[in-house]
Amino acid sequence: MNSVTLPVAFAALLVVAAIVGIPSYPLHIMIVILIWAFTYTGWSLMGRFGLVSLGHGAFMGLGAYATALLWNYAGMTPWLGIPIALALAALLAVIVGYPCFKFRITGHYFALVTLALTEVVRQTVIATRDHTGGSLGFTPTPRGNDDTPSIVALQFQDKETWFLIAVAVWLVGLLIWRAVDRSMVRHALDAVSEDEDSAAAAGINVTWEKLKITVLSAVMTAFGGAMYVQYQLFVAPDTVSGIGISLQIVFAVVAGGVFTQFGPTFGAIITLLLAELLRIYIGTDAVGLDNAIYGVALVLFIVFLPKGILGSIEDAVRRRLDRQVRSSATSGA
Amino acid sequence: MGRIDTRVWLIVIAAGLFVCLAYVPAIIREGDLGFAVSDVFLYEAMINGLLLGGVLALLSLGLNLIFGVVDVVWICYAEIVMLGMYGIYYLHSFYGVPLLIAMPAGILLTAIIGYAVHELVIRHLLDSAPINQLLATGGLLFFFQSVATLAFGIDFRNLGVSLGSFPLTEDIYISWSRLAAFIVAAACVAGLYLFLTRTFMGTAIRAISQDREIMTLMGAAQGRLYLISSAIGGGLAGLAACLLVLQYDVHPFVGLSFGPITFMICVLGGLGNMVGGFIAAFILSELIALGGYHFDLEWGYVFAFAFFIAMMFVRPEGIMGRRS
After folding, report:
1. ipTM
2. Distance from first CA to last CA of chain B, Å, rounded?
3. Domain count of chain B?
4. Which of A225, A261, B126, B201 counts the highest number of beta carbons within 10 A?
C-alpha cells in the first residue's frame, strides 16, 4: 500500500469534516494523533531498514526546546526558529550518526548509543533549569494582546486552524515516506539491512546512505517536536525526550506496522485512543493501565506479529489476492 | 601484546581525564592550585563517587551475566530491581517482616521474575533479530512500571531504615549503606567469578555463552542453563534492590533514573565481561560524582553519557572486551 491518492483523499476527508464541524475535544485528539503520526512516520523511515534508534527523543526534544527557547529569549518567530531547530537536529544526527555508521555500530549497540544520546538531551534540559525550567517544564510566552500577529507567533486560539496545519503536516509526512519508498535510497538500504558487506561490495556507500536517511528522520522528528510545543504551548523533558518517549515512539510504530505507509499513523491512533478511552471510561484510578496494556501488547506483537497490525492485515490480503489470481489463472488454462 | 597496550593507554587517558575533571574547574574558578588540591569536599565527592560505583557495579552485574550468557539486552532490568525494592518495602513496612527475612524474600521474588521473563518471553525470541529481543523487554519495562503504578500508586516511599554514617576524617562522612553496597558488589564479582570458573554449572554456562549451537550438540541443556542464568541475574537484581532500598525512595519510575546508566556500564565494560563492567562502573560513577560536584548532578550524567558515546566510537568492544 503506497500511493499519493489515498493520503490526499484522507486529508481531504478530514478537512471537509473540520469545515462541517467537529466538537473541540475530538478535534484536539485528532490534532495530537496527526502530529504524533508525523513523528512516528519520521522514525519508521529509519526503523524499516533495521536502524532501530532509541534516540529520537533527543531530536524531538531539540526541535521543541530550540524553537521555544528562541521564541522566549531571542523573540525569534518560529518561522525562523523551526528551521534553526531542524538544522541543529540535522547537525546532531550527523555528529552521532557519522561515527556510528563509519565504525559499523549496528543492532543493539546502535540502539544503546542512541539511548545514551536521548539521555544526554534530557539531562542537559534538566541541568540548564535556569533557562529551560528543568523537570517542571517550559512554556513558550503567549502572544498576548500586543501587536504580534498569531501567524508570526505560530500560536492560534482556535483548534480548526491547528487541525488544518496538522493535516497538512501529516500529509507531507506520508508523501516523504512515499518518496523514500520509491527512491534508490530504499533499495540501497534494503540491501544494507540484509547484508552490509555484500551491499558495500556491490558499490553502495553504506555510511552515506545510512546518514542520509538518519538526517531526514531526525529532521522530521525535530519538526514533530516543534509542532508539539507550538500546539500544546508546554513542554517537559520527560514528555519529549528520555528513554520513555523513545520507547513509546518505537512501540507505536511496531504496533502499527513499520513497513507500510499508514502503519505509523495506525500506531498513533490505537495507542492514543487506548490511553484516552481508558482515561474516560475508567478514570484516574487506572493511571498506568494503558501502559500495562501497551507493554503486554508490545511483547505479544514482537513475538507473534513482527510486521504490526496493519502490515499483517496487508500481508493476509495480498496472499488472498495472490491465491485468487493463481486459481483464476489455472482455471483459465 | 598489542591489545594489552591499548588497555594501558586507555587507563592512562582515563586517569588523565579524571585528574583534569577533578582539579581544572576549581583551578579556573579559584585561580589557585593549592586550594584546588586541598579542597576537602572534592575528596568527599571522590569517595562518594567510588561508593556510587559500587552500587552501579552491583546493578550491572546481573544484567552483564544475562548479556554475556543469553546475549539479550534486558531493557527492563532496572524495573526488576524496582519491583524487588517494592517487595522488600512492603514486606517490612506493611507486614512487619524483619529486614533480614524481607531481603532474601525480595531476592527470591526477583529471581522468580528473572526466571519468568526468560521462560515467558525471551525463550520465544532466541532466534529473532537482537533488536526484537530488546524491544520485547522494552514492552516489559512499560508493563512492570505500570503494574507498580497500579498496585502501589505513584507516591515516593521510604523504608525509613537508615544505617547511618561514620566519620572518616573530621569533615568527611561515609554512609554505611553505600559502603555496604560497595563491599557486597565486590564480594559478588568475586563470588560470581568463582562460580563461573570453579563449578561444573559455571563452566557449562561459560561454554554455552561461547557457542549456543555447538554446546547443545555436545549435550549441554541450553534451555536449563539459560533459565538458571536468568534466575541468577534476577536474583542479583534483588540483591541490588536490598541495598538501594536503604538509600533511595521507591517509586514506579525509579528504574528510569538508573536503568540507562546500567546498560552503558555493561556495554562500556565489554558485554558479559564482569571485570570490565566493574571498572566501567567506577569510571562512570567518578564522572558523575565529579561533574556533580563542580557543576550539577545532571551535568555529571551528561558527561558520563557523552563519554560512553565517544568510547563506543573508539572502542566498541568495550574496555576489557574482545572484538568478535
Report:
1. 0.82
2. 18
3. 1
4. A225
Cβ-contact A14, A273 below 8 angstroms: no
Would you call B313 and A105 a contact, using CB atoms and an 8 Å cutoff? yes
Chain A, residues 65-124, CB within 8 A of chain B, namely 96, 99-100, 103-105, 107-109, 111-113, 115-117, 119-120, 123-124
Chain A, window 123-142: residues with a beta carbon less than 8 angstroms from a chain B beta carbon: 123-124, 126-127
pTM across the whole model: 0.85
Nearest CA in chain A to B73: A108
Chain B residue numbers touching A106 (CB-CB < 8 A): none
| Contact yes or no for A260/A132 (Cβ under 8 A) | no
Q: With CB atoms and an 8 Å threshold, state whether A127 touches B295.
A: yes
Q: How confident is the model at residue B324 (pLDDT cuts 50, 70, 90)?
A: very low
**pLDDT digit string, tens, across residues B27-86:** 777 777 777 677 777 888 888 888 888 889 888 888 988 888 888 888 899 999 999 999
CATH class of A5-308: mainly alpha
CATH number at residue B296: 1.10.3470
> Among A291, A304, A305, A307, which would you mutate to test the B interface (most chain B Cβ atoms within 10 Å of its Cβ)?
A291
For B144-181, what is each residue's pLDDT tens digit? 988 898 888 888 888 777 777 777 777 777 888 788 88
Q: Measured between alpha carbons, how far is residue B313 from residues A54, B272, B274, B307, B322 in Å?
A: 17, 19, 21, 10, 15
How does the average pLDDT of chain B come out, rounded?
84
Torsion, Cα B297 B301 B304 B305, to 10 degrees, reads: -170
* Residue A55 CA to its chain's centroid (Å): 12
Length of chain A counted residue by residue:
333
Do the Cβ atoms of A288 and B138 come within 8 Å? no
B139 lies in some domain: yes
Residues of chain A neighbouring B143 (CB-CB closer than 8 A): 291-292, 295-296, 299
Chain A residues touching B150 at Cβ < 8 A: 286-289, 292
Query: Is position B324 within any domain?
Result: no
Residue B319 inside a domain? The answer is: no
